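User
Here is a favour to ask of a fellow structure person. I am asking you to supply a protein in sequence and structure-token form. Please set it down just below, with no commentary around it:

Assistant
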Amino acid sequence: TGEQLRLESTDSGGAYGPIMGLYRNSATPGGGDGLGQINFYGEDSAGNTTTYAGVQAIAADVSNGTEDGRLILTTIVAGSNRSRIDMLTGGTVFNQDSQDMDFVVESNSNTHALFVDAGNDRVKINTTAGTAGNLVVVSNSSANAIQMLARPANDYAFLNFYNNAGTSQF
């Protein structure tokens, strides 16, 4: 379909434009107040209106001089609304709702430069391999790799180095 809504700015120069503002003008602002929400709707296969994604802004702290904001990005996963990114005062949380959703950062030539394997509670670098213990594998191929494994419950850890032929050196 064609464009349904357009905000257009004809100003010249380097300033932002157009600018859309959502303004909650409250006589009694309070921490935790919702400032605005954008929902993305569509129909499911049965014709029901479904919210597939959303953005929510919250005034976390409204104290003059120490104001804090919060922004939450959500999507529907298996029929339920889930937080995907939650930008809080103290940091940014991915997968706040603790779903089995992996987090992947790709590099120019690696699809898993950083890989948080949610289902196995693992963090991996440049690999998707390994499921035992609290595993971190750092490698750029099967050779020249460093592998670190810690199993606190079994009270041991090991560090393994591989040479450029892929042979263990430790």
Notes: The mean pLDDT is 83.
